[in-house]
Specification:
The protein is mainly alpha-helical and 240 residues long. It folds into three domains: 1-118, no CATH class; 143-209; 215-239. The protein contains six helices and no strands. It is elongated.
Length: 240
């Protein structure tokens, strides 16, 4: 299948958007406009032509990844940024940079989180540190604090995963129930069709038999009429 001009433009604009995202461009508003434009172009591509469905799915996944990535940059809390980034699924395609983008910003957001934690914890320890407290105690306390933060993030991820799994199971049950209802309806329709077919055959047989009976009665009446006419004819002939 030949690639149209519109599809070529979609591929080029997606590459430009991924390059801007990977290079940490400060023009987020421009990247947002480009993503909106590529979304409209993909919609137009689906309407105006008949492209490969796999290619359309890849374009859509790349565009959705860029949207999700741009949303993570608007989050102020580094922890939530990192969680939101982990939820994004890179596109498994050779010419897509989504995997590199996720890896790069995972390092960036992790560094921001570490800087925030170390910076705030260091200030807290400096303000509350007593002369008789050893620096190793501060370090142990800081490490425990980081461990608690990591456990909190892990719990949030587990809760999100559990929620997604529950929603998926619920959706699966609803779909299964709908399929069962459709199967029952289909069986009922088949049974009704068979009943109608049998009734049609019975009606056809009845009509056929009724037709023959009508012809028998007509012949009988005709024979009686002929017989009466013959008797009348004989009587008239004798008188003459």
């Amino acid at each position: 299948m030949a690639i149209t001009r519109l599809e070529i433009d979609v591929k080029r604009l997606l590459s430009v958007c991924e390059e801007m995202a990977q290079n940490n461009s400060s023009d987020d508003w421009r990247l947002s406009k480009y993503i909106e434009a590529v979304s409209e172009m993909i919609t137009e591509l689906i309407k105006k032509s008949d492209p490969d469905k796999d290619a359309i799915n890849q374009y859509t996944k790349r565009m959705e990844f860029l949207k999700g990535f741009l949303n993570t940059k608007d989050i102020e809390n580094p922890e939530k940024k990192l969680v939101a980034l982990e939820m994004l699924e890179p596109v498994q395609e050779s010419n897509s940079r989504s995997k590199d983008i996720k890896q790069k910003y995972k390092v960036t957001y992790t560094k921001q989180l570490r800087d925030e934690l170390f910076g705030s914890d260091t200030n807290e320890f400096r303000s509350s540190r007593q002369p008789d407290v050893d620096s190793s105690d501060n370090l142990d306390e800081l490490l425990r604090h980081h461990q608690n933060k990591q456990e909190s993030i892990a719990e949030e991820l587990i809760a999100i995963t559990r929620g997604l799994r529950e929603h998926s199971e619920l959706a699966g049950k609803i779909i299964k129930k709908d399929i069962e209802i459709l199967e029952k309806s289909s069986k009922g329709m088949d049974a009704n069709f068979e009943n109608l077919k049998r009734e049609e055959q019975r009606l056809s047989e009845f009509v056929r038999k009724s037709t023959w009976r009508c012809w028998i009665w007509v012949l009988a009446v005709a024979m009686v009429a002929i017989f009466i006419k013959m008797i009348l004819f004989i009587k008239v002939t004798k008188k003459s």
